[in-house]
Amino acid sequence: MWAALGLIFIALTGWLCLSVVNESNDKNIHPHYKKTHRRKRKVIHDATIDYAQIKNLMDARLNNHLSDSQMLNLPTKVGSILILALVERQLLKVSIGLILIWAASSKKAGLADELLSCIGVLYEELDSESKCEMMPLFFSPAMDNNESIYVGKVACRDAAFSLFEKLLDRDGLSVEILKQEYLSAHKYHYLLPLHEKFSYET
Fold first, then answer.
1. Alpha-carbon gap, residue 182 to 176, rounded angstroms
2. Is residue 25, in this structure, part of any structural domain at all?
3. Is 29 in contact with 45 (CB distance < 8 Å)?
4. Is residue 43 part of a domain?
5. What's the pLDDT tens digit per position in 26-59?
6. For a disulfide at 22, which of 35, 85, 112, 199, Cβ 3.0-4.6 Å?
7. Cis peptide before 75 (omega within 30 of 0)
8. Beta bridge mates, 35
9. Who wins on pLDDT, 5 or 201?
10. For residue 168, with 0-12 CB atoms within 10 Å meaning exposed, 13-18 middle and 19 or more buried, which class applies?
11. Residue 100 sits in which domain range?
């Protein structure tokens, strides 16, 4: 199944070139807790995964050094996690945009239009079967609560999600179905956020 997903997202990754700097994590197969402003978030590491390899493959893809055929010939697990990492870069770009817009709009004048413009770029890029890729902007990776690991400020998350729901309503899409589609598409969702693990590797 990941091969089909790869074809969907290959075209979407070329415009991303955002570098994200994060705190180092304690590399350990046993999960530990990292403090966030709202709660303690479990960060899961898997010693069977070579995160440096995934990071190198992602960089190669973004620099056009990894072809479509090479991506599709990767081992299933590696390919699945690579796709998850590439999608995460899209989410990081959007989430940083949302946070900056929210912080800059002291009077919130025209805020809705700016937030909608920010999420709308990715939303319109994705076809109807791929809208589920945006769900981690508004929900946990496991889709079991509304605590996004990418948009930590609750008011910003809620405002953006309200606009996202309007887009879904316009297109006749269901939040609950998109959650199910996301979990079905990404077997390794529990590894998110991957960019924090990449920061450790570097």
1. 10
2. no
3. yes
4. yes
5. 333 233 333 334 445 565 668 889 999 999 999 9
6. 199
7. no
8. 40
9. 201
10. middle
11. 2-16+38-201
Buried b (16+ CB within 10 A) or exposed e, 132-145: bbbbbbbbbbebee
Task: Tell me how far CA of residue 37 lies from CA of 4, 106, 141, 153, in angstroms.
Answer: 37, 21, 18, 9
Token pair listed for 129: 């079967």
Q: How many domains does the chain have?
A: 1
Does the structure show a pLDDT above 50 at 6? no
Over the stretch 103-135, which tens digit does the pLDDT of each residue have? 998 666 789 999 999 999 999 999 999 999 999
Residue type present at position 159: A
How far, CA to CA in Å, does 148 sit from each of 2, 50, 71, 165, 198?
Answer: 24, 25, 29, 16, 19
CA pair distance 164, 148, nearest whole angstrom: 14
Q: Which distant-in-sequence residues (6+ apart) come within 8 Å of 202 by Cβ? A: 55
Q: How confident is the model at residue 9 (pLDDT cuts 50, 70, 90)?
A: very low
CA distances, 132 to each of 84, 112, 125, 170, 180 (Å):
12, 22, 12, 15, 8
- Cα 15 → chain centroid: 15
Residue with tokens 């990071």: 55
